[in-house]
Amino acid sequence: IGRGRERLILRRNAGEENNGIFENWERAELIVGAALFALLLFGARPNKLMLGLALLLPAIVSVQHFYLSPQVTDLGRQIADLPANDPLNAKFWTFHGIYSGSEILKLVVMLGFAVRLAIRRKADPDHFVKEFETETGSVKRANIG
Fold first, then answer.
1. Long-range contacts: 22-30, Cβ < 8 Å, 24+?
2. Tens digit of each residue's pLDDT (9 = 90 or more) over 24-66
């Protein structure tokens, strides 16, 4: 078939493989993000900041998965046979850049999430005593009533 056609076919195949990988990775990110949010929501003491960050991550992935990826995929298929100076190339690279920017945004949010998890407030030395008194006080009141 010749080197030129072979190169086009292999390039098209690589593009389709990348599309499939991105789509599956985004689905996995949505599942992990939803699980993290549920874990934090139904945990002992949900923190609003952590819940917000955990909700922001799947929101970013949703925009990527349902809006940006289909655009990049469609434009990538259209520009495969077009010359480099075609206006669709610029549109493709604009969407590609927005997608890359959203990846960086996810990394920044995850870094903030990790920093917030790593930095804790000063521990209250009487926390367990207060918790025990609260529980035993409610038990005593229940037994009295």
1. 22/69, 23/65, 23/69, 26/61, 26/64, 26/65, 26/69, 27/65, 29/57, 29/58, 29/61, 30/58, 30/61, 30/62, 30/65
2. 999 999 999 999 999 989 987 778 888 998 999 999 999 999 9
